[in-house]
Fold Hydroxymethylbilane synthase.
Amino acid sequence: MNNVIRIGTRDSELALWQANHVKDLLAKNGFESVIVPVKSDGDLILDKPLHELGITGVFTKTLDVAMLNGTVDIAVHSMKDVPTKLPKNIVKAAVLPRANTFDILLHKDKPKEFAKHATIATGSLRRKAQWLNRYPKHTIVDLRGNVNTRLEKLQNNDWSGAIFAAAGLERINLKPQNHTVLDWMIPAPAQGAMLVVAMENDKSTRKAIETLNDYETDICTTIEREFLSTLEGGCTAPIGALAVIDIDYVTFIGGLFSLDGKHKVTVEKRILIENCEGLGALCAQEILKEGGEEIMIKLKKELSL
Ligand SMILES: NCc1[nH]cc(CCC(=O)O)c1CC(=O)O
């Protein structure tokens, strides 16, 4: 490594905030770094097809390529966007302390009761399935784009509300007036956590980045992502998982939903942290046994996973 760590990031407001956050934390620990926004896949050329390098993530592939090409030393990601299997030669260098894990609903009308025929916007199958499970008569419309784009679309449509990750809104300093924290909705595995990845053989960079690792967030997100990978759901399937540590215990809740929200299987466990190895896989196995297998088979057909 040259002494200045090059931080690769996408150029959305949220991504830039996260990269700058890592830069600040590194500075506190005595490491100099510089932000390198990586724009589009267009100008990134590799000598092998992406799948041969194990690159699969829609949100992360641009930065993976930049790292493999040596344009940047590390990449900062919203951890929930990162496929559970990292590309060849790229490793987890640190998991940062977690922010708010919950989803929130932003709505135009007063919170009270949701109208019988509310229309809720979200592009996430996990959010859609859980919303329809709770409010079967509501309509879900698709909403995509980065956080700013989605907020704009909410303003310009007559939807009752739209669902966001609280962490994303808080990071770009948006505190909307009418909102409801959806504490009943199981978040995406690793929601609210940031992952810093580096090249496996870049020992000196990894040593610097490791100083940022948060032990508890690392444990919790490992369990959640193990749950996800055991279910073989990928990052788009309607699967939620949340592990929380209090003192010596970890409490895990995981759920698998059918796309229409009609079927759900959930699992909840509380165990001593020292016994938590394999907890994610164990809970996934339980889900599969208790009806999850049928949901997964149907899902894989519907999503062509
Ligand atoms: N897939 C988009 C995405 N990736 C990470 C965040 C927010 C930060 C986080 O959840 O950790 C968001 C926005 C959202 O889900 O509303």
Remarks:
- The chain has three domains: 5-97+193-213, 103-182, 228-303.
- Residues 228-303 form a domain with the Double Stranded RNA Binding Domain fold (CATH 3.30.160.40).
- The first strand starts at residue 5 and ends at 9.
